[in-house]
Amino acid sequence: METITSAELRLDRVSVLSTLGNATLIDRVSFTIDRPGCKVGIVGASGAGKTTLLRLVNRLGTPDRGQILWRGKSLADYPAPMLRQQIQMVPQEPRLLGMRVEQALAYPLQLQKIPSAQIQQRVQDWCQRAGVPEEWRSRQELELSVGQRQWVSLVRGLVAQPQILLLDEPTSALDPGRIDQFVAVLKTVQCTVLMVSHQLSVVEQLCDRILWIDRGNLRLDSPTTTANWSEIKEAIG
User: Fold this and answer.
1) What residues does 67 pair with on adjacent strands?
2) Verdict on whether the full-model pTM lies above 0.90
């Protein structure tokens, strides 16, 4: 399988208009991720355009202006199946497609035509690494709580071992213990992570860098260690 060998990502003056074209959802946003493995938190008020940005990187939407480049090449130039194997998105409202947990975890690997024995081993390894209890693995989607589904969806993204992992509010339904585990697990992964979150404490603990989106504009691009967290918290609540 052809792979993309670097996680360098560049958004160059990207804008997105509403369906009717009478409102700007994303307004000339530019940023670059040079280092593979960088963890970037995207914060902002509800409706600021955070999820829209994630969808653009996964090519679930296209910019009306500007361009998105990966290794100097437009995302549009990559075959969609390969791109989505290398860039995995975990949505805010996870779905297991009617599968049992173990089937759902194996599914992205089956799409990559990985041999069954390797799939079973990788699923087993990640279940242990991420603390997916044995009793969950035979359950159907509706037999899981919202928080359990969210955790399984996260692990499914990790099992695929993408080069970029896009997370949309990945801790919104997790209890405090699972949130701590989430931070610990994500700190060990080597892929680049772009995470939308309203939980600023999680962003501060996990991420190297913060992007603050305000009404479609990039208001701040800063290392988390030097960001003015008091100002951010006051502005977005």
Assistant:
1) 12
2) yes
